[in-house]
């Protein structure tokens, strides 16, 4: 996974993670709808959405003047698989 670190960084921020949860639950959601569910400004929500899009966790499409965001579960699945592979402990050989 080439964007492993950007996904990790995107998920590390609690507010961004909450935004991803909102998008995942909604299926599709606009920036304004996300902002109405979060205690932060719409500008900050827009910034967090850009990070999520850049990391590949969320896609965006234009619908008139609105941007509609959709989660991409396959990217999260790939990240979790890579995380598990990178953190799986290899049993050490015992000294005789």
In the CATH hierarchy, the third-tier topology is known as Arc Repressor Mutant, subunit A
Label the structural class.
Answer: alpha+beta
Order of helices and strands: HHEHHEEH
Overall structural domain count: 1
Low-confidence stretches: none
**How would you describe the shape?**
elongated
What is the count of DSSP helices, taking H or I runs of 4+ residues?
5
Q: List how many beta strands DSSP finds.
A: 3
Strand content of the residues, in percent?
5-15%
The CATH homologous superfamily corresponds to Winged helix-like DNA-binding domain superfamily/Winged helix DNA-binding domain
User: Please, what is the average pLDDT?
Assistant: 92
State the major sheet.
3 strands, antiparallel
| Approximate helicity band | 55-70%
Based on CA atoms alone, the radius of gyration comes out at 17 Å
What is the end-to-end distance?
39 Å
| Sequence of strands across the biggest β-sheet | 1-3-2
The appropriate CATH architecture is Orthogonal Bundle
Determine and state the CATH class: Mainly Alpha
Summarize the structure.
With 96 residues, this protein is an alpha+beta fold. The chain has five helices and three strands, in the order H-H-E-H-H-E-E-H.
